[in-house]
Write a structure and sequence with these properties.
The chain is α/β, with parallel strands linked by helices. It is built from eleven helices and 14 strands.
Length: 302
């Protein structure tokens, strides 16, 4: 697979804060690559460097074979960038917004391409509606259409589904899947670990560092632990007593706990004894495949 993004020992600081601290990885052509982590992990800073909006303090990066520092102007027409706060013009219609971005990128005879994108994003029935009158999900689709009008080879998406309703999130992912079929490389950041499962490869990022980078399956396999999902009551008491009395990694999800252990038989007997001593009633339990969230918290704890 041809490499289209190559990052080596990239650093960026804001006064005392090391936003990106020695990051290195590659992204292949036609790949969906997910940069995953909490707020403040360094995801947005990384993307802003890769699209040429920020200069790194040190390290090197190449996008489509162009050097990020010396050939920045050659990169911009080959990529698309959808930021967290993409600037649509509220007093322009959907059609007019796409036309505006086509003109910015010097795209001539853009009408056919615009029609294709409107059909692709299912916005054709709303093409005369002002951007200010669109829902959050429709605004994101329009922003993506504006990003794609000049046929970029790579698109950078910075948390594109944050704040978007579940139905619009699902539609957005269908659109991204179709873009992959066209051979477009997608580099996206997301705080949603369930979304990251859909990527070809993911990089788990925390406090400016990459703590794991591989396929979602390989990242999960690297945990080398088993996860017991336990439904019990009272759930908060169960969480606290496991946390206080063991070294097991425990996470609470609504009415259930995920407890990461090394040996199911031996370690579960310890949990059962703790439950008995604290009058906690177990309703159900099962062994589950570790999720990316389990793995991310595991690596952070390490």
């Amino acid at each position: 697979m041809k490499t289209v993004i190559n990052i080596t020992d990239l650093h960026k600081s804001y006064t005392e804060i090391k936003a990106v601290n020695g990051v290195s990885y590659t992204v292949g052509e036609g790949e969906m690559f997910g940069l995953v982590g909490p707020d403040g992990a360094g995801k947005t800073t990384t993307i802003r460097m890769l699209v040429g909006l920020l200069n790194p303090d040190s390290g090197t990066a190449e996008v489509l074979g162009y050097d990020l520092l010396t050939q920045k102007n050659l990169i911009k027409d080959e990529i698309g960038y959808l930021s967290q706060k993409f600037s649509l013009y509220g007093d322009l219609t959907i059609d007019e917004n796409i036309e505006f971005f086509a003109e910015i990128h010097g795209v001539k005879d853009y009408q056919k391409r615009r029609d294709e994108l409107l059909e692709f994003t299912r916005l054709t029935p709303f093409r005369d509606r002002l951007a200010d009158k669109l829902s959050g999900g429709m605004k994101q689709k329009l922003a993506l259409a504006c990003t794609l009008i000049h046929k970029p080879k790579i698109i950078f998406l910075d948390e594109p589904t944050t704040g978007v309703d579940p139905v619009s999130r699902r539609d957005f992912w269908k659109i991204l899947s179709n873009l992959l079929k066209e051979g477009i490389t997608i580099f996206m950041s997301t705080p949603y670990l369930d979304e990251a499962e859909r990527c070809n490869r993911v990089a788990l990022m925390d406090k400016g560092k990459i703590i794991s980078c591989d396929t979602p399956k390989n990242v999960k396999d690297s945990m080398h632990m088993q996860v017991i999902e336990i439904v019990c009551t009272p759930i908060r008491t169960a969480y606290k007593v496991i946390k206080l009395n063991t070294e097991f990694e425990v996470q609470m999800y609504g009415d259930r706990l995920n407890v990461a252990v090394h040996n199911i038989d031996e370690d579960y007997s310890i949990i059962a004894e703790i439950f008995k001593d604290n009058s906690i009633k177990e309703i159900d339990r099962r062994v589950i495949t570790p999720s990316l969230e389990n793995v991310f918290i595991h690596f952070m704890n390490k």
